[in-house]
Specification:
Length: about 425
């Protein structure tokens, strides 16, 4: 299956609104229950002299995994529709969800927002919608779930749809791009098949809506960006930087530039899995050799890009950050270590420009004296050594970072603007 037919999907929403149950239902309806679950069930069924494979079994299994403290085990599951192969990349039950979303580790293209019909918009509904909006999720599919609990009542459904649309309006999501579906993950209504329980509902099923998502734009359309992980000297070849291509393609014969080291040359050879290749693409781990570049000319944290559109080097940059955990307060002048792609550079937070409500994105205060755990803010940052970084709106793969201090991740963010 080619890359562009693949979708990374996040399943978000307030706790207990039915995210795990919905993932279980999707896996079950698409026949994608993980092999180990089927094997285990077969053994148990044989012992008890029963056959068949039931949704209840999938849920028991997921519930068991959850008891071991791992909502995350429903992540990294896969299922397919006619159009796409979906990977569930992350779920908000996971402790690192916010960090993963910000740093792009989860790299979800689209998300299913689960909102329980009996409970409606709840605090984590707001928080996840705001994060999705700021962190680059393209489209949300809204499952108004647990319709069975509200007796498949149309007015209840309409009320939740209207509340979610209000929320989208507040954070700036285009509501016309969202689809709303009346579901019961538990009973299976409108997930794979149109349900007789909701005769008033004429929209798509969840699987149809997933199938109709627009294709994520392939990162090959963007310029080459290859953060360098290591630099080796290999006899017979010379200097070999290695790294993973984040965006764009690299061909032998291309003229490339390394930033911030500010050197460059022509790509002589590219090697992947110990074989020479003429060309490499996003996701490829490569070692390559550039004419005239010595081991001391470049280093880990450099980004390799085309010579005619080199990676940008930030004098300062503005960024949106979310403070996840900091024992006290963050004020202007604070200088923690920023981790962006393969670079680790001490950066000073020069000014805190504004503080926002993390659940709605509304500005709470201009130029606040400090920010603390739980706050979202726009800050201006000055790297203490040259750092190659890009606006996340242009190259999301190189536009996010984690902020670390005292051995832990204290904040994460994405770059809004780079002043070179
Ligand atoms: P999560 O925290 O969002 O992952 O929620 P879960 O999937 O764990 O669901 C929370 C509870 O709601 C569980 O007891 C589920 O069985 C129940 N539940 C989930 N979806 C539905 C539904 O569509 N209808 C009903 N009646 N219960 C549901």
């Amino acid at each position: 299956m080619s890359d562009e037919r693949h979708q990374n999907l996040a399943v978000i929403g307030h706790v207990d609104h039915g995210k795990s149950t919905m993932v279980g239902r999707l896996l079950y309806e698409t026949g994608s229950v993980p092999e180990h679950v089927i094997e285990q069930h077969k053994e148990e069924a044989e012992e008890k002299g029963k056959g068949g494979f039931e949704f209840a079994y999938v849920m028991d299994n997921l519930a068991e995994e959850r008891e071991r403290g791992v909502t995350i085990d429903i992540a990294h599951q896969e299922f397919s529709t006619d159009e796409y192969e979906f990977t569930i990349v992350d779920c908000p039950g996971h402790r690192d969800f916010v960090k993963n979303m910000i740093t792009g580790a989860s790299q979800a293209d689209n998300a299913v927002l689960v909102v329980a019909a009996d409970d409606g918009v709840a605090p984590q509904t707001r928080e996840h919608v705001f994060l999705s909006r700021t962190l680059g999720i393209d489209e949300l599919i809204v499952a108004v779930n647990k319709m069975d609990i509200v007796d498949y009542d149309e007015s209840k459904y309409n009320q939740v749809v209207s509340d979610v649309k209000d929320l989208f309006g507040q954070v700036g999501f285009a509501t016309e791009d969202a689809s709303f579906i009346a579901t019961s993950a538990f009973e299976g209504d409108n997930v794979a098949d149109h349900s007789d329980n909701t005769p008033w509902y004429d929209g798509p099923t969840l699987l149809e809506a997933l199938n109709d998502l627009p294709e994520p734009s392939p990162p090959t359309d963007t310029d080459l960006r290859l953060p360098i992980q290591d630099v080796y000297t290999i006899s017979g070849i010379g200097t070999v930087p290695v790294g993973r291509i984040e965006t764009g393609v690299m061909n032998t014969g291309d003229n490339v530039s390394f930033q911030p080291s500010d050197v460059g040359g022509e790509v002589k050879t590219i090697e992947m899995h110990h074989e020479e290749v003429p060309k490499a693409e996003p996701g490829d781990n490569v070692g390559f050799n550039v004419r005239g570049i010595g081991k001391d000319d470049i280093r880990r944290g450099d980004v390799c890009g085309p010579a005619d559109d080199p990676p940008s080097v930030a004098e300062t940059f503005t960024a949106q950050i979310v403070v996840m955990q900091h024992p006290s307060v963050i004020t202007a002048g604070y200088t923690p270590v920023f981790h962006a792609h393969t670079a680790q550079v001490a950066c000073t937070i020069e000014s805190i420009d504004k503080k926002m409500d993390p659940s709605s994105g509304e500005t709470q205060e201009e130029n606040p004296d400090f920010i603390q755990s739980g706050d979202a803010a726009v800050v201006t940052v000055r790297p203490q050594k040259p750092l190659s970084i890009e606006p996340s709106s242009e190259i999301p793969e190189l536009g996010s970072f984690a902020v670390r201090d005292m051995g832990q991740t204290i904040a994460a963010g994405k770059v809004l603007d780079v002043n070179e």
